[in-house]
Recover the amino acids of this structure.
């Protein structure tokens, strides 16, 4: 039997919790969650040409790494 591989920070229990959340959601709750996601001012959705996706992912990873360093420094000091 093939063993599942999970992204960093994920395990089988977390996957089950996420699946349970969405399986129990009503249609109205799902719509409200989707609408709330588009109201946030910290993220956006956009169409990106496929050939640019690797560069965008690289930029996001660099941004996240910088944010992680700043957050760690804030927690230490």
């Amino acid at each position: 039997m093939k063993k599942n591989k999970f992204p960093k920070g994920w395990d089988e229990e977390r996957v089950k919790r996420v699946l349970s959340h969405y399986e129990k959601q009503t249609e109205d709750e799902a719509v409200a969650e989707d609408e709330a996601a588009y109201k946030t001012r910290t993220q956006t959705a956009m169409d990106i040409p496929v050939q640019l996706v690797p560069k965008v992912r690289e930029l996001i990873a660099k941004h996240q790494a910088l944010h992680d360093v700043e957050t760690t420094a804030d927690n230490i000091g």
In short: The first helix runs from residue 12 to 24.
